[in-house]
User: What shape does this take?
Amino acid sequence: MLSGDIPPSQTIYIKNLNEKVKKEELKRSLYALFSQYGRILDVVALKTPKLRGQAWVVFTEITAASNAVRQMQNFPFYDKPMRIQYAKTKSDCIAKEDGSYDKKKKQEEKAERKRRAEEAQQSTMPNGASAQNGGSTASFRHGNSSAQEAVAPNNILFIENLPHEATSMMLEMLFQQYPGFREVRMIEAKPGIAFVEFEDDQQSSMAMQTLQGFKITPQNPMTITFAKK
Assistant: This one.
């Protein structure tokens, strides 16, 4: 493993990233991909000549960073295998920045993170309750959800409540981790929804159970149901 001689930390350093991807899309995609391992404080990616193809992801917990390093090593991200290791120090991601993230922005982000943490604590009471609560609020939000729930399991998932900036590449990176993944279909005229196809209903069910309520952004927990055929 690349991180052999560097002690574990909550910041991971990623290199060999596709340099053609725009910075904001890269940061959103990294957030979407790595937030399955734990809460992310920051994603840093710069387009300066020395730092192209590199990024830093800062988790709240070292265990989350460790899982990400172990499980995502060489993951094909925008057609290039990621090389991941622990950052040498937590300040790596700060020291390498070009000044755009100065103290003021850090303080604003800290305050925003605190608000999010408080909101998360309120919405995730006991373990089982959070998923149930999330499910029930999602049901009330979508008027046709009771009809959706009656749809028999099949190999195509219907995804709702996606952020408008979500791309098919982001969803592919999330869903291709599960066996039997075939493709993502998004409808330009209807942002916020997508269809994800698997080889059979058992494989689609597994992905649904694991990613139900997954947040591509903090404000957008995904609602996943079986598609009507």
